[in-house]
Amino acid sequence: MMTRKRTNPMEYREGMEIIDSDMMEKILEMLGNYDYQKYTDEDVKLALLKEHLSIDDFGAILSPAAMPYLENMAKKAVSETRNHFGNGVSLFTPLYISNYCENHCIYCGFNCKNKIRRGKLSVEEMEIELKAIAKTGLKEILILTGESRHQSGVSYIGEAVKLAGKYFSTIGIEIYPLNSDEYAYLHECGADFVSVYQETYNINKYEQVHLSGSKRVFPYRFYSQERALLGGMRGVSFGSLLGLDDFRKDAFAAGLHAFLIQQKYPHAEIGFSTPRLRPFINNADNNPNDVHEKQLLQVMLAYRLFMPYAGITISTRERAGFRDNVIGMVATKISGGVSVGIGGHNLEEKGDEQFEISDPRSVSEVHQMIITKGLQPVYSDYIRV
Ligand code: SF4
Q: Is residue 384 included in any domain, yes or no?
C-alpha cells in the first residue's frame, strides 16, 4: 500500500495570505524558554501581591507551584472581574450551520475521516433556526462551521451573518481561518468577533494531530487573529485545546499570544476560551488526560489575573456545577440552549454533533441560575450604529 507523504506544517499553501509579523517566532521562543517547574511558592506569592502581572508572573501562577494557591487566586480574580465587568454575565448561543470538514484533526468529531451524518443549513433553514433562537431573548450569536471552503464558502457564511443581523446585535464567527480581505467582507456583512483556537502551540504535536487539510498549516492559523483585526473585526478570541499536549505550556502560549496582540492592537477586544477535549461520535475515549477541573480552573484564573480586562467564555463542554462556579469569578460569558449538531433549535437535527455537551440547560435556566448567584444576565452590551 502506498503511504501519502505528509506536507510540511510550516509551509503556507497557495492563496494563504502572509502578513508581515514576527509574533509567531517571538512566542515560540518564549514558549521554548518556559520551564514551569522552576517556579517556587515565593514566586507565586510575589506574583499575587502585584497589581499588574508580568509575563514571568503569569508563568508562575500557571505552574504546579501555584496549585496550593487557587483560593488566593480566586479571591483576587473575583475582585478583578468585578472591577472590569461589574456583576454582568453575557449570554449567547452557538449556531452550527454546517459540519462538513476537509481536515483530519484526530481529536474532533467533524474530522473528514469520521463517519457521521453530514449536513448544512439552507438559507431558509438558517432563518428558521435564527428566529427560534431569537425568541429565547438572546441578542448575541456565534456562527460556526466545520472547515470546508467547498461546502461552506465565505459567501455562504456571509449570508448567514447578514441574516443573523436581522435578529442579533452581536455576531461572532468560529470558522476556518481567512485572509484579511475575507474577514473584511464578513465584517461588512455584520460579524464583529472572530474565534480561532490554535489547539496546541507545540509544532511537533500540531503536526501529529492535524494529519491533512489546510488546518495543518500552523503559521496561517497562528496569524488568523491579526488578519481578522486587519480586516476590521472588533474582537478576537484565543485558546488552546487543553489535554491535547502539555496544558501548562499551551495555556501559557495562548495567554502570550493574546497579550502581544493586545499590545499591538490596543483597540481590540480580547477573549479567551478554555476548551478541554471531549468524547465525540466514534471516539468515546477522547478525554482531557491530566486536565481536571482544578487544572482548568487554574488556567482560567491565570488568564483573569494576567489580562483582567479580557472576556472569558465557559463552554458547555463543562458540567453545570463547574460553569455556575466560575461565572462572576473568572468567566464573563456563558452559553445556553446549546446544540452542537446542525439545526436542533427548531428544525430537526440534519447533521451530527461535534462533541458531547455536558450542560444541556436552556437559556431561561441559565438566566435563572445567573440571577440566583446575585449576578446580572446581560443580553446586549453593544449597539450597532
Ligand atoms: S477541529 Fe475544526 S478543522 Fe478540525 S476536524 Fe473539527 S471542525 Fe474540522
A: no
111 ligand 1 Cβ < 6 A? yes
CATH number at residue 252: 3.20.20.70
pLDDT digits (tens, 9 = 90+) for 307-316: 999 999 999 9
Contacts (Cβ under 8 Å, ≥6 apart) of 287: 243, 277, 278, 279
Domain hosting 155: range is: 70-378
Q: 3-state class of 354 per DSSP?
A: coil
Using the mean position of ligand 1's atoms as its centre, give its distance from the Cα of residue 48 in Å.
Answer: 37
Residue indicated by cell numbers 507565586:
44
> pTM here?
0.96
As a whole number of angstroms, the distance between CA 139 and CA 126 comes to 16
Nearest residue by C-alpha to atom 1 in ligand 1? 108
User: Is the minimum distance from the CB of 101 to ligand 1 under 6 angstroms?
Assistant: yes
Residue 213 to residue 231: CA distance in whole angstroms: 24
Give the chain's domain count: 1
Amino acid at 240: S
